[in-house]
């Protein structure tokens, strides 16, 4: 209905509904903000740390195992290099999983 054809009572009713809707939206954002009050800059930096460690740990483990294999059973292949690459690959898959999980949580909220 256009504003010209509405009576003053209908216009007030429409304005009241719009106001109620805006207040409801702001209140839902406020409630959502309270639920996620721990999601600060430090929380974000912590998530970066989790992703970093999820790559670093498998890489270090692969390197350590490769050094041990090269020392115990020397061969013409560098086990350090192969297991380093494997550790980086596994760590990257692990980091991708954590980022995907965090993204799904954000989208669901």
Which short descriptors sum up this protein?
109 residues; mainly alpha; 2 domains; 3 helices; rod-shaped
How would you describe this protein?
The chain has two domains: 1-37; 40-109. The chain has helices at residues 8-35, 41-72, 79-108. 83% of the residues lie in helices and 0% in strands. The chain contains three helices and no strands. The model has no long low-confidence stretch (mean pLDDT 85). The chain is mostly helical.
* SSE arrangement, N to C: HHH
Structural class: mainly alpha
User: What is the general shape?
Assistant: rod-shaped
Mean pLDDT: 85
Low-confidence stretches: none
Based on CA atoms alone, the radius of gyration comes out at: 28 Å
- Helix percent reads over 70%
Distance between the termini: 35 Å
Task: Give a short account of the largest sheet.
Answer: none
Percent in strands = under 5%
Fold blueprint:
Layout: H1 8-35, H2 41-72, H3 79-108
Helix pairs in contact: 2-3
Task: Provide a short characterization of the protein structure.
The chain has helices at 8-35, 41-72, 79-108.
């Amino acid at each position: 209905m256009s504003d010209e054809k509405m009576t003053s009572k209908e216009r007030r009713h429409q304005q009241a509904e719009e106001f109620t809707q805006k207040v409801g939206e702001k209140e839902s954002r406020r409630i959502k903000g309270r639920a996620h009050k721990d999601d600060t800059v430090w929380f974000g930096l912590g998530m970066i740390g989790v992703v970093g460690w999820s790559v670093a740990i498998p890489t270090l483990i692969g390197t350590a195992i490769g050094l041990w294999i090269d020392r115990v059973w020397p061969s013409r292949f560098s086990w350090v290099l192969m297991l380093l690459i494997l550790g980086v690959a596994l760590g990257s898959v692990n980091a991708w999983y954590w980022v995907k999980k965090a993204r799904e949580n954000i989208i669901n909220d």
